[in-house]
Specification:
CATH superfamily of the largest domain: NAD(P)-binding Rossmann-like Domain
CATH class of the largest domain: Alpha Beta
Radius of gyration: 23 Å
Shape: elongated
Number of domains: 2
CATH topology of the largest domain: Rossmann fold
Structural class: alpha/beta
Strand order of the largest sheet: 12-11-10-13-14-15
CATH architecture of the largest domain: 3-Layer(aba) Sandwich
Number of helices: 11
Distance between the termini: 49 Å
Order of helices and strands: HEEEHEHEHEEEEEHEHEHEHEHEHH
Number of strands: 15
Helix content: 25-40%
Oligomer: single chain
Length: 339
């Protein structure tokens, strides 16, 4: 399963190539509570077919009524991009299913350039990060390569969004935890790869949609070419495999790097990486371990929920409170039992 943004862009491209008229809607600004964050996209075909989402469904229905033939309305208009706003009044917020006080502003692009979308998707498929600039005054859209994700912005005339390849997860080590974690990552829009040189572990792998990468972990991590939308998680429980992967991962731009293990094993790993492999306290700041957030997890499925939550928090640039840090939470529990 790929990210919803890529799915919307690919579908828009395919519909345009097939000769359909298409509306591309982007959430440009929000005030108060909003069902979807800025930058969220949906594509609407002239016959009423929809992919993606900008709300809980009511705004999509309104756009279908206004801009498609699905309910006998006029054909989809052409022309320059438009800005529309929903939920200004309490009645509108209720009508369109917005949370109390929520207001949503959309930019509507009518039949965007097929050549532009093909160029954009070619960049994304090659692993590039791209900044898209849409000028609403003349409808011109341009692309600029960038090395750093930038925040979405809209000033009423220009819409600037950073688009990149889909999020990727590389797992080191097969097993029950890896299977649950791979499943959760897939339905969160990650492409998932797995490396485990032990055939007795990979022989029973059963999760469809996961790419199995042969070879030793350090070679695989190097060939994986992690970028700022990549996560690397070592769950083999074998230091010879996990450490090899982590040594390469720590010198990559991956947004999340983690390894399974108890507090004691995690501390021993840090000491080992510093003493024998030239790492430092500073370089290990990026290493999550013990991985996950503290939810009292015991089973592989529960641990996978914990780990996926931490990965998503890192992806969404959310600073987690210290209370959910595994080490600090368990230390607090131990202290409480002694009092």
């Amino acid at each position: 399963m790929e990210s919803i943004d890529l799915l919307v862009l690919r579908t828009t491209r395919d519909w345009l190539a097939a000769g359909h008229r298409v509306l591309l809607a982007t959430v440009a600004r929000t005030w108060g509570s909003s069902p979807r964050p800025v930058g969220s996209m949906m594509a609407l075909r002239s016959d009423g077919r929809v992919v993606g989402s900008v709300s809980g469904g009511c705004i999509e229905d309104d756009l279908i009524h206004r801009h498609t033939r699905a309910y006998g309305g006029p054909d989809m208009p052409a022309g320059l991009p438009q800005v529309v706003r929903y939920g200004v009044s309490a009645d509108e917020a209720h009508r369109f299913g917005l949370p109390c006080g929520g207001t949503l502003e959309l930019v509507l692009e009518f039949s965007p350039s097929l050549a532009h979308l093909e160029q954009l998707l070619a960049c994304l498929d090659s692993g590039s990060l791209v900044r898209r600039n849409l000028d609403l005054r003349n409808g011109a859209a341009s692309l600029t390569a960038t090395a750093t994700p930038e925040l979405f912005s809209f000033d009423g005339q220009r819409l600037l969004s950073t688009l990149g390849p889909g999020y990727r997860l590389l797992l080191i080590g097969a097993g029950a935890l890896a299977e649950y974690l791979a499943t959760m990552a897939l339905f969160n829009g990650f492409s998932v790869s797995l490396c485990d040189p032990r055939p007795e572990y990979t022989a029973g792998w059963s999760i469809a949609g996961v790419t199995l990468l042969p070879g030793m972990p350090d070679d695989v991590v190097r060939a994986f070419r992690a970028d700022v939308r990549s996560a690397i998680v070592a769950v083999s429980h074998d230091p010879k495999l996990d450490d090899l992967a982590l040594l390469e991962a720590l010198h990559s731009p991956a947004f999340y790097i983690g390894a399974i293990g108890s507090r004691r094993n995690s501390q021993l790993r840090r000491e080992r990486l510093i003493e024998h492999f030239g790492e430092s306290e500073a370089s290990l700041q990026r290493l999550h371990g013990p991985i996950g957030i503290y939810i009292g997890s015991k089973t592989p499925a529960e641990i996978a929920v914990s780990v996926m939550a931490e990965i998503l928090a890192a992806k969404n640039d959310v600073r987690l409170p210290s209370a959910v840090n595994v080490t600090r939470a368990k230390e607090a529990e131990q202290l409480a039992r002694t009092l």
